[in-house]
Amino acid sequence: MYKKPKLELQTTTLWEYPSQHYGEGMQGNKNYKGATPSFVIWNLLQRYTKKGDKVVDPMCGSGTTLDVCRDLGRQGFGFDLQPQRPEIVRADARHLPLESASVDFVFVDPPYSTHLKYSGLPECIGELDADGGGYYEAMEQVIAEMHRVLKPGGHVGLYVSDSWRQDHPFCAIGFELFAQLRKHFTPVDIIAVVRNNRTMKHDHWHKSAALGNYYLRGFNYLFIMRQGDAAPVSPRRAPKPPPLTPVAPPLPRGKQRKKKKHRI
Ligand SMILES: C[S@@+](CC[C@H](N)C(=O)[O-])C[C@H]1O[C@@H](n2cnc3c(N)ncnc32)[C@H](O)[C@@H]1O
Questions:
Q1: How many whole angstroms from 237 Cα to the centroid of ligand 1?
Q2: pLDDT tens-digit series, residues 30-55
Q3: How many domains does the chain have?
Q4: For 113, which DSSP code?
Q5: In this structure, what CATH number is given to the domain that contains residue 115?
Q6: CA-closest residue to ligand 1 atom 7
Q7: pLDDT by residue (tens digit) across 189-248?
Q8: CA nearest 119: which of 33, 23, 24, 216?
Q9: Distance 92 CA to ligand 1 centre (A)
Q10: Structural domain range at position 42
């Protein structure tokens, strides 16, 4: 029987885990279209929060963030226009029923333009096209609201993909949202998360991409930023770095090698 690899802290800027869920059970709901792979949230909470911290997901979907919070002893608060579970509160991510500067971490996995149909409600940002249909204007408001509710020194994680559709212009959603986040927060890092969805396993999708001269989306961006310029909070104790390589003593005068001139 297939056994999932151990869930471990990702240590490079390329994150990969071969399953939507970790452990025996399920975080969120695998049948919810657009559900976030739970190892992404697990990694963020391990690094940027500690036990008891308040974590908010303003577009909570099937509640993956809430389940990871429960596993790690964080207080999770989830909002969405179409709550999938009783503990998710119906709210628009642009107007959260939360006090300013009251939460330690915000994770959000927004719609990627009009790629998936969610509630179909007029307030749903998944109804707005990134190709001039008001998507960025709406996301600007979501990001401003994330900034309002976050405590100084708190962190945000935004998980998103670019958008390419046949007969439409390519939309660099990642770069656009990074620029919007940058107006409010200090960048910490940019992660590429490998997409392990079913689409990537179908041969005919790859054949069509080669024939049609386009690309399948192979990764999602994960932008990590900090509120304000406060020093980064480190809930984990970092291991001691190895000793620095000793610098060679200078050669006696006269024996010094001439510096080579490099041609450009
Ligand atoms: C990519 S899904 C989130 C998936 C979620 N992280 C999970 O693991 O199940 C995007 C979500 O944004 C919600 N959404 C869209 N517009 C919204 C808005 N204005 N306010 C709150 N939620 C919204 C959708 O209903 C959908 O559940």
A1: 34
A2: 999 999 999 999 999 999 999 999 99
A3: 1
A4: T
A5: 3.40.50.150
A6: 35
A7: 999 999 876 656 778 889 999 998 899 999 999 999 999 865 555 555 545 555 555 555
A8: 33
A9: 10
A10: 14-227
